[in-house]
Amino acid sequence: MTVGFIGLGVMGQPMALNLARAGTQLIVWNRTPDRAEPLRAAGATVATDVEEVFRGADTVVVMLANDRVVDAVLRRGTGDFARMVRGRTLVHMGTTAPDYSAGLAADVARAGGTYREAPVSGSRGPAETGDLVVMIAGDAVDPGVERMLRPMCREIVRCGPVPGALLMKLAVNTFLIGTVTALCEAFHFAGEHGLDPGTLSAVLDAGPMASTVSRAKGGKLRERDFSVQASIRDVLYNNQLIVDAAHAGGVAAPLSEVCRELYAEALRDGHGTADMAAVVRALETRTSRSTR
After folding, report:
1. Burial of 92 (0-12, 13-18, 19+ CB in 10 A)
2. CATH code at position 203
3. What is the residue-level pLDDT of the chain in tens, covering all 292 positions?
4. Domain count, the chain
5. Which Pfam families does the protein's record reference (predicted)?
6. Is the same domain home to 25 and 84?
7. Please, where are the H alpha helices in 153-272?
């Protein structure tokens, strides 16, 4: 089976590379052509346009930044979209609003295609090592799609019909964003009271709250290393999706609303491309203002 892969960004490029290295026959395309060169070196075919991807593959993975980009790249609402997806399986692995995904699924079905929702839990590091967790949703279990996904992940969790996988992704991200933001506040609190960040890390790592996330982000906070794994901009985007879905469902989400404001402040202060741990800078700014 030849697999198409559209979107070779921070997450998409290492995911596609894992497919290529596993021997998947792959045809790829990206809006910025240079991002496709490592895939070419790994043996993938680099398409000149999106239509070439659909002509060459029965299953096409889409890993794009947001719903506007998905619509633009797939030419949704045009005859081109219907022609491309007819007879194809479209696997949407990016993060968008659940309602948007449900609408996209309906459009794909009307055009004669098959739709699978497969967002992931994990950042660039797990994407590089093939340790993502994939949440998959669709009208039926699809063993072929699940086999295709295996080189990119260590776990596949079935989440029922669309948009169950994206709702699950937002639930997972609620916990992730709250956890990392609380960790940043802990380091900020400790620093403002003159405590050694290395000692704080030692206590956290030895205790019951230790996790892969706390160790990774704790290291970033300790070293002031904000090289990106998951950016402030992307986390704010995800956080806004959570708040929007909560409001749409009449669900209280006070912690998510507070986190959203902090990440928005970090973005406004120029930290949009830094790792999400850089939200500590928004806390530092608030403290600085309160002590003037």
Report:
1. buried
2. 1.10.1040.10
3. 899 999 999 999 999 999 999 999 999 999 999 999 999 999 999 999 999 999 999 999 999 999 999 999 999 999 999 999 999 999 999 999 999 999 999 999 999 999 999 999 999 999 999 999 999 999 988 999 999 999 999 999 999 999 999 999 999 999 999 999 999 999 999 999 999 999 999 999 999 999 999 999 999 999 999 999 999 999 999 999 999 999 999 999 999 999 999 999 999 999 999 999 999 999 999 999 988 7
4. 2
5. NAD_binding_11, NAD_binding_2
6. yes
7. 164-192, 197-206, 212-223, 232-248, 254-268
